[in-house]
């Protein structure tokens, strides 16, 4: 709970008497004001979203380089030299499809507005235009000077308040929020799948090379082949563990309808409780279909839904 002194720092109040204008009164009873989602949607929501953060950009480039390295080893070290054409075609097709979906999901997660609240809209004139009733209040963020809806948090990297912000992920150079959580979940899932697939192929290739002449199982020299496979094995194992844990964490967060920040801060639940299936459909779209697994499908997120400002 915020102390009355702290609450005055980021709360705008309507005066107790009608027509008195906006003022400060920290003793008013808390209420909620339903406001259309259009009010808190950024005007640049349809434009390209990209965070100019050096650390995030470097991490995003590293992510692509690691996937491309795995692609190189899988194709030119393991599959193309293989004598089994069916094995090469099946595994090459599967791996490339998963890698393409992983990179597409990464791009969508990175270049999609996660749910940014418009900057600088917490002006006296704008708050008066909301026609607050006596005793009603709205939160505003002192850092980006925006009207702060319920379940929104300020990101110091994006320098914006993000609706249903889960966390800021440098690997996708973006926040994970209301609008791009689906793409982030797909990204972790597809990376985990290609990591597992690469590990299985590495094991089979090692067994094949031990049974056959090492000079015939790869177009590279035996020492180079071993080094490339060991590096791929290490990369695959590391990212399989990391993305699997992240995927499980995200699915649990969606099912419980509680973001990572809300869990960390142990915030009081002020929103309606829904079933796990309803929470999943809210993130991935209605109804369930193969489009849930497509990074090219934009989910509906409940356009008719109204958001509550914490007041």
Overall average pLDDT = 81
Low-confidence stretches: 1-40, 304-311
**Helix percent band:** 40-55%
- SSE string, helices as H and strands as E: HEEEHHHEEEEEEHHHHE
Strand segment tally: 10
- Which sheet architecture does the biggest sheet show? 4 strands, antiparallel
How large is the share of residues in beta strands? 5-15%
| Overall number of domains | 2
Radius of gyration: 25 Å
The first-to-last residue Cα distance is 13 Å
Question: Strand sequence of the main sheet, in spatial order?
Answer: 2-1-4-5
Number of helical regions: 8
Principal-axis shape equals elongated
Structural class by helix and strand composition: alpha+beta
Pfam family, one: DHHC
Family: Belongs to the DHHC palmitoyltransferase family.
Organism: Seriola lalandi dorsalis
Transmembrane segments: 54-79, 85-104, 183-208, 220-242
């Amino acid at each position: 709970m915020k102390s009355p002194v702290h609450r005055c720092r980021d709360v705008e109040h309507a005066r107790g008497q009608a027509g008195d204008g906006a003022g400060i009164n920290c003793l008013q009873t808390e209420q909620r004001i339903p406001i259309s989602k259009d009010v808190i949607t950024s005007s640049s929501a349809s434009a390209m979203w990209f965070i100019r953060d050096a650390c995030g950009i470097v991490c995003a480039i590293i992510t692509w380089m690691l996937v491309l390295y795995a692609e190189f080893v899988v194709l030119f070290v393991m599959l193309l030299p293989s004598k089994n054409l069916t094995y090469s075609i099946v595994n090459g097709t599967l791996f490339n499809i998963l890698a393409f979906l992983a990179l597409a999901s990464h791009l969508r997660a990175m270049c999609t507005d996660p749910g940014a609240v418009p900057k600088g809209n917490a002006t006296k004139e704008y708050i008066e235009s909301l026609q607050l009733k006596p005793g009603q209040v709205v939160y505003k963020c002192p850092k980006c000077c925006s009207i702060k809806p319920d379940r929104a948090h300020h990101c110091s990297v994006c320098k914006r308040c993000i609706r249903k912000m889960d966390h800021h992920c440098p690997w996708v150079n973006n926040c994970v929020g209301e609008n791009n959580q689906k793409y982030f979940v797909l990204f972790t899932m597809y990376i985990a799948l290609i990591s597992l697939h690469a590990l299985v192929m590495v094991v089979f290739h090692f067994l094949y090379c031990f049974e056959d002449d090492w000079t015939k199982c790869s177009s590279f020299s035996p020492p180079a082949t071993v080094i490339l496979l060991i590096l791929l094995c290490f990369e695959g194992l590391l990212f399989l563990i990391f993305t699997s844990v992240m995927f499980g964490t995200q699915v649990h967060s969606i099912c419980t309808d509680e973001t990572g920040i809300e869990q960390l801060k142990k915030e009081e639940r002020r929103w309606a409780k829904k079933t796990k299936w309803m929470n999943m459909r809210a993130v991935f779209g209605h109804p369930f279909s193969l489009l849930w697994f497509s990074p090219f499908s934009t989910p509906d997120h409940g356009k008719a839904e109204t958001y509550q400002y914490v007041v």
